[in-house]
Amino acid sequence: FITLGNTMQILTVHHLTSYRYDRPVRFGEHALTMRPRDSHDLRMIEASLSVYPASEFRWTHDVFGNSIARVNFLEEADHLDIESTIKIEHYGLSYPDFSTLDSFATTLPFPYNNDEIADLGRCTERHYPDPDHKLTEWARQFLVNSTDPTSAPNTAETLLAMNQAISNTFTYETRDAHGTQTPMETMDRGTGTCRDFALFFMEAVRSIGLGARFVSGYLYDPAMDAAFKDPNLPEGAHLRGAGATHAWVQVYLPGAGWVEYDPTNGIAGGANLIRVAVTRDPSQALPVTGSFYGPAEAFQSLSISVQVTSG
């Protein structure tokens, strides 16, 4: 079925992660988060997952209900390849439907009801220190009604403005180092990756009393897709973060539910976003986690390739 306002696309995601070592090493258990969950806006058609060297799989759900493949290796090797391919029907909203907001939630601040407060739990709490209140001040500058400064700020307009401001004022970069910058590091440096911007936005909206959670997945870029299918086409404008795993944020708004915001590109709605994992903190949404046994200098390189195509 198709929900009003959604665009249906058939999308295929090919994700290859490769580790290289200068000698055979033994691998500890790895956890892979690469398979989306079926929902009203995403239906799995096909999925395959292969790993080298030889291994055994078992599937579990984490505390958030995300699908996790736990891999135990049967032999040593000088390289580790993890290859995932998924084909999905995707029904992403091209723009959030704010008309369904409960009347009390159309302006800020608003209170969640008791059940929602209990279920949102730590998604409404800030997780990172802000000793000088810099992030709080950054967020509160948007709490002014653009048409009437004397009235309460509009919820939809405020969140869209915050989302767009991150895209406009911070410089996007790719970074090979593991981990995510703290919001204070992102603010001080003025640069970051999609994970950094998602965490910054999440903590900013939590600072004004809203529940938010971190999302990891993939980004469909029509320009990159077209160039892959026909290299002779003139290059179009690319979305930032395509060609790798991507990260964004969901904010819980009563009546509208969990609304998608991608501060890296300044867009809202999930038309180009393929959701894989939803967590409270970025550290809980890593596509691959694991270990190897051997000297640290044995590790040589890590390469990640993500290709999202339509049709």
Question: Topology of this protein?
Answer:
Elements (H helix, E strand, L loop, with lengths): L5 E22 L2 E3 L9 E11 L2 E7 L5 E7 L3 E17 L20 H7 L13 H7 L14 H15 L1 E2 L10 H7 L1 E2 L1 H14 L4 E8 L2 H8 L15 E9 L3 E6 L4 E2 L4 E7 L8 E2 L2 E2 L5 E12 L1
Parallel strand pairs: 7-8
Antiparallel strand pairs: 1-6, 1-15, 1-16, 2-5, 2-14, 3-6, 4-5, 9-10, 9-13, 10-11, 11-12
In summary, what is this structure?
By secondary structure, this protein is of the alpha+beta class. It is 19% helix and 38% strand.
Shape: globular
Derived from helix and strand composition plus strand pairing, the structural class reads alpha+beta
Spatial separation of the terminal alpha carbons? 18 Å
> Count of helices?
6
Describe the protein's architecture and organization.
- The chain is α+β, with helices and mostly antiparallel strands and 311 residues long.
- Helices cover 19% and strands 38% of the residues.
- It has six helices and 16 strands.
- It has helices spanning 114-120, 134-140, 155-169, 183-189, 194-207, 222-229; strands spanning 6-27, 30-32, 42-52, 55-61, 67-73, 77-93, 171-172, 191-192, 212-219, 245-253, 257-262, 267-268, 273-279, 288-289, 292-293, 299-310.
- The strands form four sheets. Strands 1, 3, 6, 15 and 16 form a five-stranded antiparallel beta sheet that branches.
- Strand 10 and strand 11 form a beta hairpin.
- Helix 2 (134-140) packs across helix 5 (194-207) and helix 4 packs across helix 5 (194-207).
- The longest helix has 15 residues, at 155-169.
- The radius of gyration is 20 Å and the shape is globular.
- The mean pLDDT is 93.
